[in-house]
Design brief:
Elements lengths: L5 E5 L2 E5 L9 H17 L4 H15 L5 H4 L17 H13 L3 H7 L17 H11 L4 H10 L10 H17 L3 E2 H15 L7 E4 L1 H4 L4 E2 L1 E7 L8 H9 L6 E5 L3 E5 L5 E7 L4 H9 L2 H13 L2 E3 L4 E3 L5 E3 L3 H7 L15 H6 L14 E2 L13 H10 L4 E4 L14 H23 L4 H11 L13 E9 L10 H4 L4 E5 L8 H13 L5 E2 L17 H11 L2 E5 L9 H9 L3 E5 L11 H10 L13 H7 L5
Parallel strand pairs: 6-9, 13-14, 14-15, 15-16, 16-17, 17-18, 18-19
Antiparallel strand pairs: 1-2, 3-5, 4-6, 7-8, 8-9, 10-11, 11-12
Helix pairs in contact: 1-2, 7-8, 12-14, 20-21
């Protein structure tokens, strides 16, 4: 991984050369050292709170516009560092040590036990902190190349829990890691885009910053990040100062290029960012061009040529006299080409241009169309919040109902429920739902509190809450290896919502895993298939299910197929979502939230649904709660 120091191996130890001059100790270097210390603490099995404190501090440092080397200088105000959110007294002392000496006691202690290259091992499947530490202690292996060689030789087979299956999985994981190392999940890319945009906006005269490329099109992972910037500061006569501002952003790791209106750089994690500062008059043309996709743009340029026009990143112009036809907005460009506006998520040259010409583009689903979220976890299994807290967070997000679906007993490490616990939990869920209904009837509680707050803030077209918020009692029940369910039928019959999911046995053959899911579908109490292919974006391939057979069975039995909004899953994919609609499947979008802040995941799910050309009518949880329940598979 990118590092601010080099090491020379001496046996199983490393001699570390750290930066020791203040002029090299910039914010990005401090952030990297703190973040790598957090990873070393993780390998060392340290307290999770301590690990998080280092990671929070690294993020805080990375976003600062002031030089921390100056704030940490002996002559500086000792309270200056403490004024930064995420930095307490202990972390401030660490930063002062880093600035003064290039190192800190905790880091020195960890580097006497471990090597920096071990951090990359944490990104491989099955290589958690304890496994990495055990491997290093037993073999001295501390980097991916050495691990791969040992695995191919069979040297790992004698180690605890490292049999042939683990070794095969590890080698596949190394291959995937190398293939995906230069790609980043959509949520990671969006987070970086927002942080960079916030820093750019500090320059006067910046009005609009829009991500382009595959991030704007909603691809589940991106290879780089394009940001388009406009405003008075980006006009050609004054843009040089704005370019200088971008080129000196504190989170830049390596500056790659700086031109008249473009700055390219990489971040600490290796993500390349291209920032283009553009005049408002051509912003729409540039936005259309840099959003892509390549094939969409080629088809659009061909359409322009047939009409005597030429389309570029600068404008749509007439060929005969180079007169500008449209440039300021994307809408003007598409309309000038006799097309309805095409949403970025559809721009993959998969029929969208013809549909736009015929005025047959769908009204794509939006976040506000979703009425309920039917997959989430509480402290009863592996969630971190209570039933009430999850309900209040859902109300704040504008939802009308949720289902609490904690795990069944197979996932013992998550505190999964047996039949007795599942029914007791269902009773508590319904009791909490009844309490919310009572508060609603008396015009108190979270629904009314939200309404009154929005009213005070001047919200337009605000409608009084019409129905009490509803919490449905459910469970995410494991599909066992033979396709049976992890709860008794009598238990499942007493729940409002039953999700069936696979969480184990990923190495079954295609025939085995397909038959396993088809048998689960035959159970009359299964209403929703959870994360149906089990993939993890950039980390784990789908299990080898025959998707067509699975979706056909779901449609036949009336089972709703989940699109899981967690950005590490986004499962089903956009292509499989389109296939599900064509086969007549009921569809549902859920967050799989394990904490209140994860309700924001729904935004990522909506993006993939839009990429699949889906409308609100294509999903059943865009309906009111009673209509949703009626849309579920009928109970025996």
């Amino acid at each position: 991984m990118p590092s601010s120091y080099n090491h020379r191996v001496r046996g199983n130890r490393a001699s570390v050369c750290l930066p020791r001059t203040k002029d090299r100790m910039d914010n990005i270097t401090i952030a990297r050292l703190l973040d790598e210390t957090a990873a070393l603490l993780e390998i060392d099995g340290a307290d999770p709170f301590r690990i998080r404190s280092y990671r929070r501090a690294a993020e805080a440092v990375e976003q600062q516009t002031l030089s921390l080397a100056e704030l940490a200088a002996p002559e500086a105000d000792p309270k200056a560092l403490l004024s930064i959110a995420g930095i307490g007294k202990g972390m401030a002392a660490n930063i002062r040590d880093l600035v003064a000496t290039g190192t800190m006691p905790m880091r020195d202690e960890l580097l006497s036990k471990y090597r920096p290259s071990m951090l990359e091992l944490l990104k491989l499947p099955g290589m958690g902190p304890k496994t990495v530490a055990m491997l290093y202690s037993a073999t001295g292996i501390a980097d991916i190349d050495a691990l791969e060689e040992a695995a191919k030789r069979g040297d790992l087979l004698s180690l605890p829990r490292m049999g042939q299956k683990f070794t095969d999985k590890l080698l596949k994981g190394i291959e995937d890691h190398r293939r995906n190392a230069s790609r980043f999940r959509i949520d990671v890319a969006r987070d970086h885009a927002e942080r960079i945009a916030a820093l750019i906006r500090q320059f006067p005269g910046i009005e609009t910053i829009t991500p382009a490329g595959s991030l704007r099109r909603g691809k589940e992972s991106v290879g780089d990040l394009d940001l388009l910037v406009t405003g008075p500061a980006c006009e050609s006569s004054v843009v040089a100062s704005a370019v200088e501002h971008v080129a000196t952003l504190p989170l830049i790791d390596k500056l790659l290029a700086r031109g008249q209106n473009k700055v390219s750089f990489t971040l600490r994690n290796g993500l390349q960012v291209d920032v283009r500062l553009l005049p408002r008059a051509s912003y729409g043309a540039a936005l259309q061009y840099f959003t892509g996709s390549k094939h969409h743009n080629v088809a659009l340029r061909q359409r322009a040529i047939k009409r005597g026009l030429t389309l570029s990143e600068y404008a749509l112009m007439r060929l005969e006299d180079n007169a500008i036809v449209a440039a300021a907005t994307e809408e003007e460009i598409y309309n000038a080409l006799e097309l309805d506006y095409i949403a970025p998520e559809l721009r993959e040259n998969s029929g969208e241009i013809d549909a736009a010409a015929r005025h047959e583009l769908p009204r794509l689903i939006t976040l506000h169309d979703v009425r309920g979220d039917l997959h989430m976890h509480t402290t009863e299994s592996d969630g971190v919040n209570s039933i009430r807290q999850m309900a209040e967070a859902a109300i704040e997000r504008g939802l009308d109902y949720i289902a609490i679906t904690d795990h069944s007993k197979l996932l013992s490490m998550t505190g999964g429920m047996d039949d007795k616990r599942a029914l007791a939990h269902a009773a508590r869920i319904r009791a909490e739902s009844d309490r919310l209904a009572e508060e609603f009837a008396e015009q108190r509680g979270p629904q009314w509190a939200r309404y009154r707050r929005l009213l005070a803030e001047g919200a337009q077209d605000l409608v009084e809450p019409g129905i009490p918020f509803r919490i449905l009692a459910g469970c995410e029940c494991d599909i066992l290896l033979d396709g049976t369910l992890d709860l008794e039928d009598d238990t499942m019959a007493q729940l409002d919502v039953l999700i069936a999911s696979i969480h184990s046995g990923f190495n079954q053959t295609p025939e085995e895993v397909t038959e396993r899911i088809l048998r689960a579908c035959e159970n009359p109490y299964v209403q929703i298939l959870g994360h149906p292919t089990g993939r993890k974006v950039l980390k784990r391939d789908p299990y080898k299910v025959d998707v067509s057979k699975m979706l056909t069975a779901a449609a036949r039995y009336g089972i709703a197929v989940e699109h899981n909004s967690a950005p590490e899953r986004t499962d089903l994919s956009d292509l499989h979502l389109r296939q599900a609609k064509e086969l007549g499947c009921k569809l549902i979008v859920n967050t799989d939230a394990h904490a209140v802040e994860e309700f924001t995941r729904l935004e990522y799910g909506i993006v993939q649904l839009r990429r699949a050309w889906l409308s609100a009518a294509d999903l059943i949880n865009t309906q009111p709660v009673e209509a949703f329940l009626a849309s579920l598979r009928p109970r025996p």
